[in-house]
Specification:
Elements: H1 4-7, E1 10-12, E2 19-21, E3 26-28, E4 35-37, H2 43-63, E5 67-71, E6 74-78, H3 80-89, H4 93-122, H5 129-145, H6 148-159, E7 166-170, H7 173-190
Antiparallel strand pairs: 1-2, 3-4, 5-6, 5-7
Helix pairs in contact: 2-4, 2-7, 3-4, 4-5, 4-7, 5-7
């Protein structure tokens, strides 16, 4: 069984990684004296709440203007997709590709990945835990890179600024986008990957 360490009442300290004998769900590490739980308390509830919050923020993040492009004093507010079109028109195709990946592929993929992980925790049949572990690490790794879109807009606001001729300013959509990214990071942090191994029948050939 994949959870034989838990069955043997053994738990690893998250701070110093020492294996401790768990006398209760909450234990004090015998080496560094850090108090920790056998599993993160309410991991699934927090992960689900943060993931749903991120999904809700995804809607205004992509419908509200992300930036305002000024040309000869005339403002032109644009959403993420409209901003991508502007960058393409300006001949900044690499920037447009980066924004598209950072704005859609990474955040949406991370939200979907979290839902998949939570679904697999509830499954009682045999699953490929090695792939699930890789999916979790990918979701965790992508978190900070989702902020790349915000950094691009900030850099463009500083670089593409020729006074009255052309300038770029961030708009309200960037707030919702930032909240979406932060919520997905909280969701990934709340998720306990060890839950994937609990009550699972593992195929050792996978």
């Amino acid at each position: 069984m994949a959870n034989k360490a838990m069955t043997a009442s053994l738990g690893s300290c998250p701070r110093c990684h020492k294996l401790n004998v768990m006398k209760s769900d909450k234990q004090r590490c015998s080496r560094c004296h850090f108090h920790f739980h056998l599993r993160k308390p309410n991991s699934m509830q927090f992960t689900l709440a943060w993931t749903i919050a991120a999904l809700i923020m995804f809607i205004p993040a992509n419908t509200y203007p992300m930036m305002v492009f000024y040309s000869f004093g005339n403002p032109d507010a644009s959403t993420i997709l409209q901003g991508i079109a502007i960058f393409i028109q300006l001949g900044m195709l690499p920037v447009a590709v980066i924004i598209f990946i950072a704005s859609f592929i990474v955040p949406l993929g991370k939200i979907i990945g979290l839902f998949v992980l939570m679904y697999n925790v509830k499954r009682k049949d045999k699953v490929n835990l090695k792939q699930q572990g890789k999916l979790y690490h990918l979701v965790e790794f992508l978190g900070p890179w989702s902020m790349l879109d915000v950094f691009v807009v900030a850099i463009m606001a500083a670089v593409v600024n020729l006074g009255f001729i052309t300038s770029i300013e961030a708009d309200s959509g960037i707030t919702y986008f930032s909240l979406m990214v932060i919520f997905t990071m909280f969701a990934a942090e709340s998720f306990d990957p060890r839950l994937l191994w609990d009550n699972k029948k593992v195929d050792n050939n996978k």
